[in-house]
Write a structure and sequence with these properties.
The protein has helices at about 15-25, 65-75, 85-100, 155-170, 235-240, 270-275, 290, 300-315, 335-340, 345-350, 410-430, 440-455, 465-480, 485-500, 515-540, 560, 610-625, 630-635; strands at about 1-10, 30-35, 50, 115-120, 120-130, 150, 175, 180-185, 190-200, 205-215, 250, 255-260, 280, 325-330, 360-370, 375, 390, 395, 480-485, 550, 565-570, 580-585. It is an alpha/beta fold and about 675 residues long. Strands 1, 2, 7, 8, 9, 10 and 17 form a 7-stranded mixed β-sheet that branches. Strands 18-16-11-21-22 form a 5-stranded mixed β-sheet. A hairpin with a 4-residue loop joins strand 8 and strand 9 (about 190-200). The termini are far apart.
């Protein structure tokens, strides 16, 4: 049994994981990162459009601040998020952007003077301030009041990942590549590391650490078509679930992105619509203003995806061998803009569709894209049930997204959450010791070894690839954009049948090293459990909130469902998770539940909403007119981040009542 000891262990080498590792290493802690692939190939590189941060540099972002970013995030979540987390995030986002600048991210910059942009299908000229020249630019994204999505053309994730990985390399942080974690090591109260398998040699290793951070991304690949990389299979969530102790949060909250290309499902960034692109139907008609006359194509993602699906259901989709689709039209942006600011989109269209998006419309339809659910954590990123287990990024339910994530907030969460949680992870490592029990470690290694032995030497006959394909079909057919009771019950029943069959998996290839069939067999059992947490959570939640849209329960029901779903797995023989719920306290909210601004306002109000609104009015009146926005915010809902991140953010020509203008650094 090979043991590898470290202070801070991070599973996953995307932006979130690397940022936590950097925070640990900067404290002088021994740090190791595990990754299925080379770090620079992590799924973070696929993020195109940008990251949100309220810099307020551009004329269209003038007046932006943490308050507005916070409000957009809470409304985008359909009041499902932890508002204190949303505050922590909005406060630290500008700091993360400027830190990334120092690490070498080549942000697209503001050019002073007039420039032409497309707004609501019309070309208009805006005038950028001379003092803003050279500062970080921002584009429009759905569900936001201001232009705040900072970007590097449409390769923002690529730029960020290379800069952050290079920073990790400069600090000498080792990334153990082609290594897959298969089990958490724990005693029911304390996480002590992971059992991992080398994908090349088949060797089992035990990584022992004071803190273990899961940063493995989302679980999109439990669906048949997803914009996620093929490594985003939910194994990180499954590791926590299989402890029987750690709980997952809001697993039914799954986002579908409106504009993935047909048929392969590769994403075309929201930046296409943010920059002025339009959605058209089979007749060439721009249909979004018919449904959302105010925000149109730039309504929140869950809303746009549903409107597109509704429109195709009316027979307005374009027929194709792969089913109906709609058109994304960015031709009005002009060739120069497409080849400068949307160059990845152009390359994707050329390589996978054989079209030129500067003159051809792009076939698109909503496709699974993001997982709001994940390993439940507290504000420090630590799992409440298993001490020493942390999670960050898409793998976690921290929970700043609630039931719907705004575009640009995911890339931001990786580096902002990684920056904040990384400091808490380092604090934990410095303040806690670990008593190593080699007997406990050996028992977990032997359990994984036994699982592999059974697959290779056993008499099972079930094909792991067949089971996985069937799981993907079930999730796509019954747990998609629109959901209903009978179909969700069918999904649960059929997934349980697959999980039973997974107990009889067999392999044709008997190699213990470099064996893709063995890898698939080890993963599919875990993926089925994750899929069941999604389906069971969706079946139990009899309301519609954010991306969770029940056709049989179309109202958002704050009275009965203003809570967070928690899921745990009772034991290895169980066929379904145990669900419980964590109430959201309206009386602690800075922004009580209200109308999102889309469609009809049919929400069932929480009984405390009026009471909290009255209390807020009283608190603000007692402060008087002399209080600035920071004092008002603190009085309503105090929040804390690590002391080094508490300083106020500076902005260009920022002037509000009782605040002096301040300059900006970067």
């Amino acid at each position: 049994m090979k043991l590898i000891y470290t202070d801070s262990l991070v599973v996953g080498a995307g932006l979130a994981g690397l940022r936590v590792a950097i925070a640990s290493k900067e404290r002088g802690l021994d740090t190791v990162v595990l990754s299925l692939i080379p770090a620079k190939r992590s799924h973070s590189a696929a993020a195109q459009g940008g990251m949100q941060a309220s810099l307020g540099n551009t004329v269209k972002g003038m007046g932006d601040d943490e308050d507005i970013h916070f409000q957009d995030t809470v409304k985008g979540s359909d009041w499902g998020c932890d508002q204190e987390i949303a505050r922590m995030f909005a406060h630290c986002a500008p700091k993360a952007v400027r830190e990334l600048t120092n690490w070498g991210v080549p942000w697209t910059r503001v050019t002073k003077g007039p420039r032409q942009v497309v707004v609501n299908a019309e070309k208009v000229t805006i005038e950028e301030a001379e003092e803003a020249h050279g500062l970080i630019n921002a584009r429009d994204f759905g569900g936001t009041k201001k232009w705040r999505t900072c970007y590097t053309a449409d390769g923002t994730g690529h730029s960020l990942l290379y800069a952050v990985d290079n920073k990790a390399i400069s600090l000498g942080i080792p990334v153990h590549e082609r290594v897959e974690a298969l089990s958490l090591i724990h005693d029911g109260k304390r996480c002590q590391g992971v059992v991992a398998r080398c994908l090349i040699t088949g060797e089992l290793r035990a990584y022992i650490a004071k803190s273990t951070t899961i940063a493995t991304g989302g679980y999109g690949r439990i669906y048949e078509v997803s914009t996620n990389a093929i490594i985003c299979e939910g194994i990180g969530q499954a590791l926590a679930l299989e402890t029987g102790v750690a709980k997952l949060g809001n697993m039914e909250a799954v986002q579908f992105h409106p504009t993935a290309i047909v048929p392969v499902g590769i994403l075309t960034t929201e930046g296409c619509r943010g920059d002025g692109g339009l959605l058209r139907d089979k007749d060439g008609h721009r249909f979004m203003p018919d449904y959302e006359p105010e925000k149109k194509e730039l309504a929140s993602r869950d809303v746009v995806s549903r409107r597109m699906t509704e429109h195709m259901r009316k027979g307005k989709g374009v027929d194709s061998p792969y089913g109906p689709h709609l058109w994304l039209d960015i031709t009005l942006l002009g060739r120069k803009h497409v080849e400068t600011n949307l160059r990845e989109v152009k390359e994707i269209c050329e390589s996978f569709l054989g079209i030129d998006p500067a003159k051809d419309w792009i076939p698109v339809r909503p496709t699974q894209h993001y997982s709001m659910g994940g390993i439940r954590t507290d504000k420090t990123g630590q799992n409440p049930q298993l001490k020493g287990l942390f999670s960050v990024g898409e793998a976690a339910c921290w929970d700043m997204h609630g039931f719907n994530r705004l575009g640009g907030n995911s890339l931001a969460e990786t580096v902002v959450g990684g920056m904040i949680i990384g400091k808490y992870v380092a604090d934990f490592c410095e303040e806690n010791s670990l008593e190593v029990n080699t007997g406990l470690i050996e028992s977990f290694v032997e359990k994984v070894r036994g699982e592999i032995d059974e697959l290779i030497e056993g008499e099972g006959s079930e094909n792991p690839f067949v089971l996985r394909k069937e799981m993907e079909r079930i999730m796509m057919a019954y747990v998609g954009i629109f959901r209903n009771g009978p179909e969700l019950e069918k999904a649960v029943s059929e997934l349980q049948a697959l999980l039973k069959r997974a107990k009889s998996l067999g392999l044709k290839c008997k190699k213990r090293h470099a064996n893709p069939e063995l890898v698939e067999a080890l993963r599919v059992k875990r993926m089925l459990k994750v899929a069941l947490t999604v389906a069971c959570g969706a079946a139990a939640r009899t309301e519609s909130r954010g991306a969770h849209a029940r056709e049989d329960f179309p109202q958002r029901n704050d009275k009965e469902w203003l809570n967070r779903t928690l899921a745990s797995w009772p034991d290895e023989n169980s066929l379904s998770p145990e669900l419980s719920y964590e109430q959201l306290d309206v009386m602690k909210m800075e922004l009580p539940p209200g109308y999102r601004g889309y469609g009809i306002n049919n929400a069932i109000a929480h009984p405390d909403t009026d009471k909290r609104e009255h209390e807020i009015t009283q608190i603000l009146s007692q402060l008087g007119d002399d209080a600035d926005r920071h004092q008002r915010q603190h009085a309503l809902m105090p929040f804390n981040v690590p002391e080094s991140l508490m300083a106020k953010n500076e902005r260009l020509n920022r002037t509000v009542s009782n605040e002096m203008p301040v300059g900006e650094q970067g």
